[in-house]
Amino acid sequence: MYAFIRHGQTDWNLNDKLQGATDIPLNDTGRQQAVEAAAALAGGPWTAIVSSPLSRARETARIIAEQLGLELGPAYPELIERDYGPLEGAPSSANMAAYPKRDYPGAEPLADVVARGRAGLAKVAADYPDADVLIVCHGTLIRYTLADLAGRTVPGILNGSVSTFSLAGDVWTVDTINGSPLEAVVETGDETGDEHRAGIAG
User: Name one GO molecular function term (predicted).
Assistant: First the structure.
């Protein structure tokens, strides 16, 4: 089994800024969200934890590892958040409204983000073939990678949330999104609202 965990909140999440590949640290709320994520994961089958190399993901992973008594595993550059280019640090909600297809000028194409996400998963699966692995990274990468695995739209990913999936042979199956069963997740069509509420961009 695998789980994506979105890092805890940062001040840029709080202040509605596109974060992307910019390395912004957790704030105190984000650290508490990491503790709460660990509590939700306690008692599960988890035997390993890895992350994106960005500090907000790495610290979230470190907190969860300490809480669960796991050794913190490596950071995978494939799991870095989408690069939003010149828009990083700009207001996220205004840009989401201006670019509803997420085709931000100068940003990394979403297809490339998904390809990186899948490549990262392949590396983790190869490195931990017999483990149940927690993977701490970022909202956009998690959302669009899981959407690609599931073959359907999924909502914005919340800070500190857990989304689970599994691998059988070479087939990935998504089980939960933000802690809710995939079949119970409603596709509202309100993507901008979903992303703004989730503070998705980073």
Answer: phosphatase activity
Q: Can you read off the two tokens belonging to residue 166?
A: 């599994």
Separation CA 98–CA 121 (nearest Å): 31
**Distances, alpha carbon 47 to alpha carbons 1, 41, 56, in Å:** 10, 11, 22
Taking residues 116-133, report their average pLDDT.
97
Strand partners, 50: 135
Fold (CATH) for 2-198 = Rossmann fold (3.40.50)
Helix (H, G, I), strand (E, B) or coil at 57: helix
6 known ligand binder: yes
Which residues are part of the catalytic machinery?
Answer: 7, 81
165 and 173 Cβ atoms separated by less than 8 Å: yes
Are 144 and 113 within 8 A, CB to CB?
yes
Query: Could you tell me the pTM of the whole model?
Result: 0.93
Looking at per-residue confidence, does 176 or 200 come out higher?
176
Task: Tell me how far apart the alpha carbons of residues 1 and 19 are, in angstroms, rounded to a whole number.
Answer: 29
Spatial neighbors of 93 by CB under 8 A, at least 6 apart, are 16, 192, 196
Residue 172 annotated as binding? no
Ligand-binding site membership of 13 (annotated)? yes
pLDDT of residue 186: 72
Two tokens, residue 138: 């970022």
